[in-house]
Amino acid sequence: MSSLRPLAFVAQNRFVDMVARVKQSAHIEEIDVPELQQMLDAHPAASSADVHVVDVRESAEHAQGTIPGAICLPRGIVDRDIERYIPADTTDKVVLVCAGGVRSIMAAESLKRMGFANVLSLRGGMRGWQMQGMPIEKQQK
């Protein structure tokens, strides 16, 4: 059992390294909670003409609450379904949100490869959003 602990540590380090490489190589820009709140204050709907918030967490996580007005598309289907909501050739900002800011970076890389030019990741994800006392809404089923 003790031999598994070092392997888990190595795997975790490789994952963290991979996310850092993706963020750097794909030029994924992260924004913090106050920056996103400022964008949303300027554009009251989270999926307005200039800013689209996309929550890439799983459905069970969405049920706990999300950023008001966010489009909920789990990471596993965001690539497939995003253009049902936002065209790839848009110049609008697409802000991706997950629980802590990792899945959103990976999803941002995919969307950039699909042609989305202005993709951002929320640093700290929903945990950061909630820790700063920002509003959440429960999604209607």
Automatic annotation (TrEMBL):
PANTHER family: THIOSULFATE SULFURTRANSFERASE PSPE, THIOSULFATE SULFURTRANSFERASE RDL2, MITOCHONDRIAL-RELATED. Signal peptide: none annotated. Residues 47-138 form the Rhodanese domain. Pfam families: Rhodanese. This is Rhodanese-like domain-containing protein. Coiled coil: none annotated. One of its GO terms (molecular function) is thiosulfate-cyanide sulfurtransferase activity. SUPFAM superfamilies: Rhodanese/Cell cycle control phosphatase (SSF52821). CDD domains: RHOD (cd00158). It comes from the Eukaryota.
